[in-house]
Write a sequence for this structure.
């Protein structure tokens, strides 16, 4: 489990296709603290550490479903990827409850500077069936974008905006996003449970 508070925008060092899977080699400052089988969120996708290297790098494997549902398969050497280690249960929940299970991707449709912050607009494929499962945003609700816990504004049926403060902009890969960039979305797990309860009630 994660909180959506990114620890570091790390660098992808290598991408290796292995049958239908992809191995990512990532360099980050806390790599020496990791261990095999540890869970780390990459752009919001929970992946397991499978190898540790002596040069501050480690390896994770993404399976086909992850590649189809997220932007992990689009990463290439030199790209920045948002990292978060799993949440400590004795700490504060500074973001919101994030599982590391990406629901879908979205496309950045607009970037606007405003009063010291930056507004990013995103659109995603929506349908009544998806909304019935809780795959939607609500005004002032939480959403995870590339692993970052954010508050929704201007929530529409298939789009929303978020405001990024300068610190988050500088310390995550939001600084690299452009109109047309693909990001990972994880919708609020509480909304998904409520949607499921309503479905079973009918």
């Amino acid at each position: 489990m994660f909180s959506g508070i990114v620890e570091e925008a790390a660098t992808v060092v290598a991408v290796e296709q292995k049958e239908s899977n992809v191995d990512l080699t990532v360099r980050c400052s806390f790599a020496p603290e990791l261990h095999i089988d540890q869970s780390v969120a990459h752009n919001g996708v929970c992946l397991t550490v499978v190898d540790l290297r002596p040069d501050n790098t480690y390896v994770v494997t993404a399976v086909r479903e992850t590649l189809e549902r997220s932007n992990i398969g689009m990463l290439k050497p030199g790209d920045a990827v948002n990292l978060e280690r799993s949440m400590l249960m004795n700490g504060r929940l500074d973001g919101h409850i994030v599982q590391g299970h990406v629901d879908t991707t979205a496309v950045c449709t607009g970037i606007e500077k405003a009063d010291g912050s930056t507004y990013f607009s995103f659109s995603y494929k929506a349908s009544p069936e998806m909304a019935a499962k809780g795959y939607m945003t609500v005004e002032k609700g939480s959403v995870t974008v590339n692993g970052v816990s954010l508050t929704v504004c201007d929530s529409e049926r298939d789009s929303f905006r978020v405001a990024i403060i300068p610190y988050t902009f500088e310390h995550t890969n939001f600084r690299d996003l452009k109109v047309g960039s693909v990001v990972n979305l994880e919708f609020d797990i509480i909304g998904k449970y409520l949607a499921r309860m309503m479905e079973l009630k009918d």
